[in-house]
Structure formats: structure tokens, C-alpha cells
Write a structure and sequence with these properties.
2 copies of one chain form a homodimer. With 335 residues, chain A is of the alpha/beta class. Chain A is built from 12 helices and 12 strands. In chain A, strands 2-1-3-4-5-11 form a 6-stranded parallel β-sheet, with helices on both faces. Chain A starts with a helix and ends in a 13-residue tail after the last strand. Strand 2 of chain A pairs antiparallel with strand 2 of chain B, so a sheet runs across the interface. Chains A, B: This is LacI family transcriptional regulator.
Chain lengths: 335, 335
């Protein structure tokens, strides 16, 4: 204001009056000030500036649950990618509740966003359809219910990860490997199970259906299904879980039964979330490159927002085996 | 647009031209359409609507680190409180990096926000001063460097928590209790240590300075300082940590040395983050009501935004002892 006042030769009060559309300034003076103001591209805030360009300066992340594992890993990558772009990240968790999901969607359509990152394996109120209809750019990250090319998705090589995990346990001498899956209506849960079967087949080991337990990617499944597996007349010597939260549940159940890891039973997880190295013993797991997935999804979204074409509508980053201390040869195993 | 076209008796194209400030429409028609538009309170999006009222519809959360523990607990409470208010939550992590902190502050002042939640124990670039100068409402949550009444803060009864933890270990028969603190330039780290001393004094037990280790609230401190404590000629029989991340570090170090919990050494943490119940053994800890803290801070902020007075500028919610399985009597302890 001081600069504008100086340049136009009026008082700061006069400039303020013009900026706030208050009376008491002659038309000529008002016009003169407004011209300088326009040259300075004076806008009260960035929101207004974005609005002119039809942009809000916001990217929305919608996720199912704030759990502090998988989600936080991906958020680290998103934050990192947004450092340069100048966008702010709006975060919303639906908590798998249909009405909350609807609330988010209504608010998003009603308010404004430049683009959306979806961290929802499945949706209940047609979010992707609504985003497509409204031409709001979006990228889906991670597990999806069904494969699609209708919109950009980024994931990791889940099947290969499941294969690597099972093969590793087999290589240690395990022949009875329990598996605790995610919900089997999810593609990526089925991919892990298919890979588990494939690794068995390749090694010439028959799969006992009693060793396959369906869970929901929650700690609680890990506890409950481990107890079921241990109650079998011929219990497994190793357990492979769909994610690290389930693996911590397995730890919990084994602790309750006073069975040591890995001497009593081997455990292998999936994801490599932040706390896996801190578990006792540190968890051997299949790493999903969460940070890189978040980063790449954000770059894809920013390209879409800027009207640039994507190289590919679906990208999978590579999973890898992280060997720590939760797997060993079975007690009576032979190689 | 169709509705406006019908009501004013013009084509949709004409309405569109007026809405987008394009030429080719007579002044009279333009005015007529604009009146109807105004009546419909037609705005392209909520951002514009907020802008008119001088509101962005956004609340900013700035935090030091996205760790998946303490921070996620508080975010749950914030999200819950914002469900009703209609605000969206913008999240930003500074990662304790001065230039990133500066970037956030510049972006915040340049863009727009209705209010800020600070989850920063200390700041490097004068964030609170800048927010106060710009009259941006804000509430600080949790640990702060120094006590202040210059702006609203919400915390928990840290000193009492530290006292309760130490007293509990003493009641189990421990006489040599190691403590791994947070950085001692932080008020709340000093509060835990002061409470530890107080509980000792009250029980008539002298404090051995060799048992006091300063850390940085990180897992790594927990590991490192546990090894230092165990290398003492007269090592502790119990360890009290400044937060749960440090406690998981203690678990890790004890696992490396093949010392069992709680038979070999008792461990008590602080915070009660989501994963504590999942640790093996489940961690006994001092609970901070993280969700409630996030919720109450948000309610305070919304009151400030709406120009309502606060009942108090500083509120502390109560900590509590959560007894699980990581503490027991010392091996040679006498009661």
C-alpha cells in the first residue's frame, strides 16, 4: 500500500479506501490507483490469484484410514513432491464410512480442488465416476478393487512380492506355510494368494487349503487367524501376511502363546512400513516403495493438471524382499 | 446456467458469456442476467464464496514430522472435529528443516487460511510471531519449548504423567530406574525428568545421575541410550522413556542383548500411540489423550475464527497410566 501510495502521490488511507471499495475518493484518483494496483497484480491472497486462473492451489488426498503405516509412507512422498509445485495438501479420511465418503465428495465438488489423489482400495459412493464426470484430474494409488485403465493408477508389483515371500520361506525349508490374506474381493489380495500358490506349485509342494485364511488387513485378523492356524492338528511353521499390521497381530498371538519368533514360527509381512525395523524381532517383509509411489503419483497428477500427457496410465514400482530377523529354518526342516 | 437462461429469456450461450465476462452481450441484457445470477448467489465454487466472506474454508496443520504415532493420533481428533465445521485440513510437515519451515510460512502468508494448528515443539523461523502479526488465529498443540500465554495452547498433564510412571515402577520394587528423556531444552522433557526426581525423593530413593540419559524422542536414542545404561557397572532394572518411539528402541536394544521384557528389564513409555498394544510384549505406558487433544484444539481454533472468546488460553488434559505387560517386579527386588 505504501508503495502504491508513493507511486500515485496519494495517502495510504486513500489507497486503502480504493482497495476496500470505500467511498470518499474521486473517480479520477480511484482509477489512477486501480491501474497501479493492477500493474502490481495486487490480490489479497493467492486463493484469489488461483481463482482467476481457475485453480485453487490445493491437492486433495482421500484415504480410507489414517493408520500411521502404509498411509504415512505414501504421504511422505506426496509432501516431498508438492514442495516444488506450491500446492497445499488437503487430507481427508473416510474411515470406511459411507456417509463420511459422501460428505467428502459433496464438499470436494462444492468447493474447489486442482486434483485428487485416491488412497482407497474401493469406494462406496461412486467417487471415481463423479471425478471423471466433473473432469477433476485424479490418480489412484495402491491396491484397487479391480484393474482399470479408465483413470491413472500407480501400484507396486504385488504378485511378484507374494511370490518372493513364499519362495523365500520355501528356500528356508518351510513346507507348511500359513497365509493370512486381505479381503479376497480386492485384486491385490488375490494377487498375493495366487503368487503363494504359484511358488508352491513351482516347488512341487501341495497347498493345504486349511492354511489359507482371509483377513481384512487389520491387526486383529493377524491375532485371530494365527490362533486358528495354531489350533490345526498340523500347524504351519511359517506365516505370510497380507500387510505389516497383520504381521504385528501374528507377533501378538505368538507372544500370547509363548512361541518365539523365528525359532518357533517364522513370520513375513508385506509393505515395510516405518515400524517394522522396530519390532522385536525386526520383521522380515516385502517392501512396497511407499514414498516413491506417493511421489510418482503426485508427479502424474501435476502433469494432468498442467494438461501434459502421461507416459502410461498404470505404473507399477518394484517390490523387494527385506530380510531382517523374523524368519529362520523350521525346527525339524530339511533342505 | 439453463435455469438462469430460462428465467431471463436468453440463450445459455449468452448466460455463459456474461458469467465469463466475454463480449457480445448488450449492456441491458448483461445487467439483467447479472441480477438473476446474484440472486442465485451463483459462484463458481466454494472458494470464491469463502473469499467474499474473507474465508478460505481451510485449516492448516503444520507439524514437525509425520511419524505415524503421536501425530496421527492428534490428526484423528482434528479430522473428527472438522467433520461438522466444513473446513478442509491442509497438512504440512517441516521435517525440522529451517528452509522447509520458511517455505511453509511464506506459502501460508501468501495464500490463505482460516486458521492454523501448530504441532511444533519449537520453531526456527518465528512462525508464531508471524501468525500473531498477521492476525491469523492459531492454537498450539502439545509440547512447547517455553510456557506462554501469548497464544492458545493445549497440552496434557506431562509432569503428572512422569510422576505416575516413576511411582509405578517404584511401587513394583524398582530402585534403579533409568530415564531416557527428550531434548532438555523442551519444557515438557524437563517436566518428565523433574517428576522422575520428585517421585524418587518422595520415596526416599536417591537419584543416580548416571541413570539419566538425554535423547531426542527418536527410536535411535532408545537403542543407543539403552546400551549405555546396560553398560553401567550397576545397570537399571527398569527404563522410563520420554515417548513410545524411544520405548520401541529400548525393546530393540534389549532384543539385541537377548534380555527379556519384563523379566530381565521393565519398560514404560509415554504417549500411548496406536501401535503400543501391538508391541511384543504390549507396552505399559503413560497415555496422552491425543485424539481428545486434537479435537479440543480444533474446537478452540474454530471459536477463535468465529470471533468467540476462549474459556482459557491454556488447557491441559489428563494423562493416565495404561498397564500392559512390559513392567514387572525386578528379579532381586524386595517390596
Amino acid at each position: 500500500m505504501a508503495q502504491i501510495a508513493q507511486e500515485t502521490g496519494v495517502s495510504i488511507t486513500t489507497v486503502s479506501k480504493v482497495l476496500n471499495n470505500m467511498p470518499g475518493v474521486g473517480n479520477q484518483t480511484r482509477e489512477r490507483i486501480q491501474k497501479v494496483v493492477e500493474r502490481y497484480d495486487y490480490v489479497q491472497n493467492h486463493a484469489a490469484r488461483h481463482l482467476r486462473k481457475g485453480q485453487s492451489g490445493l491437492i486433495d488426498l482421500v484415504l480410507m484410514r489414517l493408520e500411521g503405516g502404509y498411509d504415512v509412507g505414501i504421504m511422505h512422498g506426496i509432501q516431498d513432491a508438492l514442495k516444488q509445485s506450491g500446492h497445499r495438501l488437503v487430507v481427508f479420511a473416510t474411515n470406511e464410512d459411507e456417509s463420511t465418503e459422501r460428505l467428502w465428495l459433496r464438499r470436494l465438488l462444492d468447493q474447489s480442488t486442482d486434483g485428487v489423489l485416491l488412497l482407497l482400495p474401493y469406494e462406496q459412493v461412486g467417487i471415481t465416476d463423479a471425478l471423471l464426470a466433473q473432469h477433476i484430474p485424479f490418480v489412484a494409488i495402491g491396491d484397487r478393487n479391480e484393474p482399470t485403465t479408465a483413470f491413472p493408477t500407480i501400484g507396486s508389483t504385488i504378485w511378484l512380492g507374494g511370490y518372493t515371500a513364499t519362495e523365500y520361506l520355501i528356500s528356508l525349508g518351510h513346507r507348511r506355510i500359513g497365509i493370512i490374506t486381505g479381503p479376497l474381493h480386492l485384486m491385490t489380495s488375490r494377487a498375493r494368494l495366487a503368487a503363494y500358490r504359484e511358488a508352491h506349485e513351482r516347488a512341487g509342494i501341495p497347498v493345504d487349503p486349511a492354511l489359507i485364511c482371509e483377513g481384512n488387513y487389520l491387526l486383529g485378523d493377524g491375532i485371530q487367524q494365527t490362533h486358528s492356524l495354531l489350533d490345526l492338528s498340523d500347524p504351519p511353521t511359517a506365516i505370510f501376511t497380507g500387510n505389516d499390521a497383520q504381521a504385528t497381530g501374528v507377533y501378538q498371538a505368538l507372544y500370547q502363546r509363548n512361541i518365539s519368533i523365528p525359532d518357533g514360527i517364522s513370520v513375513i509381512g508385506f509393505d515395510d512400513v516405518m515400524y517394522t525395523a522396530q519390532m522385536a524381532p525386526p520383521l522380515t517383509t516385502i517392501r512396497q516403495p511407499l514414498m516413491e509411489m506417493g511421489k510418482m503419483a503426485t508427479h502424474m497428477l501435476l502433469n494432468l493438471i498442467n494438461g501434459q500427457p502421461l507416459d502410461s496410465n498404470h505404473i507399477e514400482l518394484s517390490t523387494s524382499l527385506v530380510i531382517r530377523n523374523s524368519c529362520a529354518r523350521p525346527r525339524n526342516g530339511s533342505l
